[in-house]
Amino acid sequence: MMETGYKGTNKMIIGIVFGVITFWLFAQAMVNVVPAVQSDLGISLGTLNIAISLTALFSGMFIVAAGGLADKIGRKRIANIGFILSVVGSLFLVLAQGSALLIIGRVIQGLSAACIMPSTIALMKAYFEGKERQRALSFWSIGSWGGSGIASFAGGAIATYMGWRWIFIFSIIFALLGMFLLKDTPESKQESTGAFKFDYIGLVIFIITMLALNIFITYGADLGWTSPLTIGVIIIAIIGLIGFIKVEKSKDIVLIDFAVFKNKPYTGATLSNFLLNAIAGTLVVANTYVQVGRGFNSFQSGMLSLGYLVAVLAMIRVGEKILQRVGAKLPMVWGAVITTIGVAVMGFTFLPGLIYTVVVFIGFALFGLGLGIYATPSTDTSVSNAPADKVGEAAGVYKMASSLGSAFGVAISATVYGAIAANGSLETAATVGIGVNVIFGVLSILSIIFMVPKDAGKTSDDPSIRRRFPIPTESH
Questions:
Q1: Could you tell me the pLDDT band of residue 336, with boundaries at 50, 70 and 90?
Q2: Per residue in 110-141, pLDDT tens?
Q3: What is the pLDDT of residue 36?
Q4: CB under 8 Å to 352, separation ≥6 — which residues?
Q5: What angle do CA 353, 359, 360 make, to 5 degrees?
Q6: What is the pLDDT of residue 476?
């Protein structure tokens, strides 16, 4: 039974943010505790790297399916399943004495993230409207962007002073608190009649396709881009994608309803989100270059990106306020432009010593400033333009675009940098590698300009805006 007329509360927002940071802060902190975990568990670096990557992999493979399930069987129910999986996955890591529980725990954490992310966005769409929804999504963005920004620092600090297992003890605590804070939130799901139906065939094809694509992106450089295995998995991914589209278009019960892409604002927000996340390759290239080419240690290179963390946290609420004043399009364009400029200046490798160091610090700060401005308007545009009965599915596609964009960007940038560095100067390699990310930024700007309408995100009472962007109705 679903209640009518419920309005979201601050308690609900805090509970959702606690759920979001179980992945973005605690699960992601694993990348900065590799030596401690390896020493404690006595496992190989290769095994540990696989364990680290599994969380994002399983999240990306199942996030759309989890979003679709949330629409059908309940967004709060799927969110709670995500919380429970987070507790179980983290508990496995706390109890791990070797590779088995570590790997299982990381897989479960990925499934948890796949459940929590689209379902919590859908709950915010269901129980907040207008400016209140935009405010709620700002805090969601702070949990994700802010959590990922401080994951490395927080993980390192906890591991250094308390032990790495405490990272996941904290994750359990926050997951339990999140469940408690959401307990009074009523269920929300699409209206349906008859027996429950799910697109299991579509899910299997989708998982195989995503698995092949992730192997290609993540391990293509190590395996060799022209190796039989690499070529084989990309062929599987292409055939899987074509097959998936054909199967989905021929059925009534589908995993992804491609009709959502007929909405230009939603498609523009999702595409620009994919492209702007692809700029993440800059982080790999810039950090590698300053360490190898400029003699920085890992701590010093980490400090260069401190401006990014401060700026992205400071600007997310500012992006929300700009959204409420002028709509979504302008802050999305401004954010993408500022981010692209920040990336571009990091490619000025011809600059000497201290000057280049200052320029990179400024570049990282602009990177964070732009993403902070972009985050809430983009998320709100995708959510507000999603059909009310498919918002979980649409949110899953939107967040999958983030993961795939980041993976593609890192893979392409690192490959370009590595290829040129092996045959030329490090300065040239860094400039070209970062230049690839500038192209992603420009494409993101163009996707916003041509696909997101001027009135997107406005909450004005102007009847013309209401006619253009009708508020979908939904039973709660």
A1: very high
A2: 999 999 999 999 999 889 988 898 899 999 98
A3: 83
A4: none
A5: 90
A6: 34
C-beta of residue 205 within 8 angstroms of C-beta of residue 247: yes
Identify the CA nearest to 282 among candidates 292, 271, 290.
Answer: 290
Contacts of 281 (CB under 8 A, 6+ apart): 409, 410, 411, 412, 413, 414, 433, 436, 437, 440
- Cβ(237)–Cβ(209) below 8 Å: yes
Q: Which two tokens stand for residue 41?
A: 């568990």
In this prediction, residue 465 carries a pLDDT of 40
| DSSP 8-class letter at 159 | H
Q: What is d(CA 211, CA 233) in angstroms, rounded to the nearest whole number?
A: 9
> Whole-model pTM?
0.81
3-state secondary structure of 172: helix
Q: Give the count of alpha carbons within 13 A of 147, CB side only.
A: 22
> Could you give the angle at the alpha carbon of 130 between the alpha carbons of 124 and 134, nearest 5°?
55
CB distance 382 to 273 below 8 Å: yes
Specify the DSSP class assigned to residue 142: I
Q: Is the dihedral of CA 80, 83, 89, 92 positive or negative?
A: negative
What amino acid is encoded at 155 in this protein?
G
Give yes or no for a contact between 123 and 183, defined as CB atoms under 8 angstroms apart: no
Phi, psi at 298, each rounded to 5°: -65, -35
Phi, psi of 98 (to 5 degrees): -165, -160
Please report which residue ranges of 96-146 form alpha helices under DSSP H: 99-127, 130-141
> For 37-74, b where at least 16 C-beta lie within 10 A, e where not — what string?
beeebebeeeebebbbbbbbbbbbbbbbbbbbbbbbbb
Q: Quickly state the pLDDT bin for 148 (edges 50, 70, 90).
A: confident
48-58 pLDDT tens trace: 877 887 888 78
Burial class (CB in 10 A: 0-12, 13-18, 19+), 236: middle
Tokens of 208: 């195989």
**Token pair of 134, please?**
């935009």
**Helix, coil or strand: residue 95:** helix
All residues at 6 or more sequence positions from 354 whose CB lies less than 8 Å from its CB, including other chains: none
Q: Please say if the pLDDT value at position 418 is more than 90.
A: no
